[in-house]
UniProtKB/TrEMBL annotation:
Organism: Calocera viscosa (strain TUFC12733)
SUPFAM superfamilies linked: Tubulin nucleotide-binding domain-like (SSF52490)
PANTHER family the UniProt entry points to: MITOCHONDRIAL DISTRIBUTION REGULATOR MISATO (PTHR13391), PROTEIN MISATO HOMOLOG 1 (PTHR13391:SF0)
GO annotation, cellular component aspect: mitochondrion
Signal peptide (UniProt feature, chain positions): none
UniProt name for this protein: Tubulin nucleotide-binding domain-like protein
């Protein structure tokens, strides 16, 4: 079946993930008769890659996302661990007998109210579907303002997918060690999360491809995610991991005396270095505050709010879902292993980039492509491109397909097998849960998404090496926590410098003699 296990960790990562799963659910045809499949064309998307078959507590067959979701308890909103398909087996609301015989007063916290979108959706859906989540659209497209990502969910999740974290992670620059504490508690106190819950998803797969993760990179959720992937890599050393890593806002000048900034830089630097140690393929995503309005945004609404997690995550999710769509298409030979191997073709370039044009109705992508990993206009993609996997969603003539291939080759300076182009007529669906960020109304849109590896990553890594050097120069390690002292910062900086060389050695950029001597001293 070539299944994938998905992991989402941190609030913004779950904003992205909720849009992703809403779209996956929309590809289903709930009216299809299972006995009539022989007379139908198979669906374009192979749902078994991302969804698991199961049985609800009442014996109802289920088909739910194969995902693990970590976030703070408040972020789950009205989304409970048990839903209409999975009532609490032991009794989530059960009252245990008490040895106290006297009078007692019961105090119960008010449940989180359902969002307006959830109420609108329920008004349209009669009964509970037997296979997945409520797929029917609400009658009119409204502008919603959700308080959290759970407010616009269109899918049901398995109870073992839901993991509220009681620690206040995701706050103002949490320490790395706090995420490790959460992971240790999951392993030791939650009836062994790994053996009981993760293995449920892994061992029921016929042929597990690997893990696709979206995780915060700037707080303790990064530590939790890295700890989980380390365990996964120890157990499944031959399976790849593809990690999308939203970062904190990059400022013009790093303030070494700001504790929250120090912690964010330390968390991100450690996440980047440790993810490379477990041989993950990492796709950093720059904070939306760094995005610049330009020609690339001409198809977006003029009032799009780059400060809204709901809106910006929708844009990122469309690119992530489209860039990885070949992994889920029926009849497509792209696998998670072949994708990550292509992106790291040099074997020393674990960091890749996500770019895209949204929407794109033709092959004229000049000035319309934006690099979400480096926050620059990438119409002229890069002075040195190493490899790329491009997905175009939309209807193109045969001649336009050839033209698109030629233009990509010209702009990137690479050809097959380093340049892979996947074409599908399955356009990106604009659901009622999607924010009104398009300049024109549409039910579906064509777009182009690119996962690529290039020398531009060198500037990203230089940002962290410079910031870490600032910590060393100013001797600012207070409040960073265990494992992030002077020696640790020096070692991380040295590792990032070495990683940067993998992106600059072929484009004419050379480290100065002073930099090399300085790096030798650090090592």
């Amino acid at each position: 079946m070539h299944e994938i296990i998905y992991i989402q960790s941190g609030t913004y990562a779950n904003y992205i993930g909720q849009h992703f799963w809403n779209v996956q659910e929309s590809y289903f045809d709930w009216n299809e008769d299972p006995e009539d499949t022989g007379e139908r064309r198979p669906p374009e998307v192979n749902h078994d890659v991302s969804f698991r078959q199961g049985m609800g507590t009442d014996g109802t067959p289920t088909y739910l996302p194969r995902v693990l979701i970590f976030d703070t308890k408040d972020a789950f909103g009205s989304l409970s661990k048990y839903n209409a398909m999975y009532q609490a087996v032991v009794g989530e609301e059960a009252v245990s007998p008490s040895i106290w015989a006297g009078a007692s007063t019961s105090l119960r916290q008010q449940p989180y109210p359902k969002s307006q979108y959830q109420r609108d959706l329920e008004n349209e859906v009669v009964g509970v579907p037997s296979k997945g989540g409520p797929s029917q659209p609400v009658p009119s497209r409204k502008a919603y303002n959700p308080s959290t990502w759970a407010d616009y969910t269109r899918v049901y999740y398995h109870p073992r997918s839901i993991w509220p974290v009681t620690y206040n992670l995701g706050g103002n620059g949490n320490k790395w060690e706090e995420g490790e504490e959460v992971w240790n508690r999951l392993r030791e106190q939650e009836d062994d999360f790994w053996d009981r819950d993760f293995r449920l998803f892994a061992e029921e797969c016929d042929l597990l491809q690997g893990v696709q993760m979206t995780s915060s990179g700037s707080d303790a959720f990064a530590s939790l995610s890295v700890s989980l992937l380390q365990t996964f890599q120890d157990e499944y050393p031959k399976l790849p991991s593809l990690v999308f890593l939203p970062l904190s806002q990059r400022k013009a000048r790093f303030n070494t005396y700001d504790l929250a900034e120090r912690r964010r830089i330390a968390c991100e630097s450690k996440a980047l270095t440790m993810l490379t140690e477990i041989e993950a393929t990492i796709v950093p995503l720059q904070h939306p505050a760094t995005w610049l309005r330009g020609k690339w945004a001409s198809g977006l609404a003029a009032d799009i709010n780059f400060g809204s997690a709901y809106q910006t995550s929708a844009l990122l999710s469309a690119q992530i879902e489209s860039a990885t769509l070949p992994l889920r298409l029926n009849g497509n030979l792209t696998s998670l292993n072949s994708l990550t191997s292509l992106l790291n073709d040099h074997a020393d370039t674990p960091f890749s980039q996500l770019s895209g044009a949204f929407p794109l109705s033709d092959v004229h992508f000049a000035d319309k492509v934006w690099d979400f990993s480096t926050a620059v206009d990438s119409s002229v993609i890069d002075p040195m491109m190493y490899s790329a996997c491009t997905t175009y969603r939309g209807i193109l003539s045969l001649s336009d397909r050839d033209t698109l291939q030629e233009r990509l080759e010209q702009s990137m300076g690479i050809r097959e097998p380093l340049l892979k182009l996947s074409l599908t007529q399955l356009q990106y669906p604009i659901l009622t849960s999607y924010p009104p960020i398009l300049s024109e109304y549409a039910d579906t849109i064509p777009l182009m998404s690119i996962l690529h590896t290039s020398s531009r990553t060198a500037s990203l890594l230089e940002h962290y090496t410079t910031a870490l050097q600032g910590l060393l120069d100013e001797n600012q390690f207070a409040g960073l926590g265990e494992g992030l002292g002077r020696d640790d910062i020096r070692a991380m900086r040295a590792e990032l410098v070495n990683l940067r060389e993998g992106y600059v050695q072929t484009d004419g950029f050379e480290l100065s003699d002073e930099e090399r001597e300085e790096d030798d001293d650090i090592i």
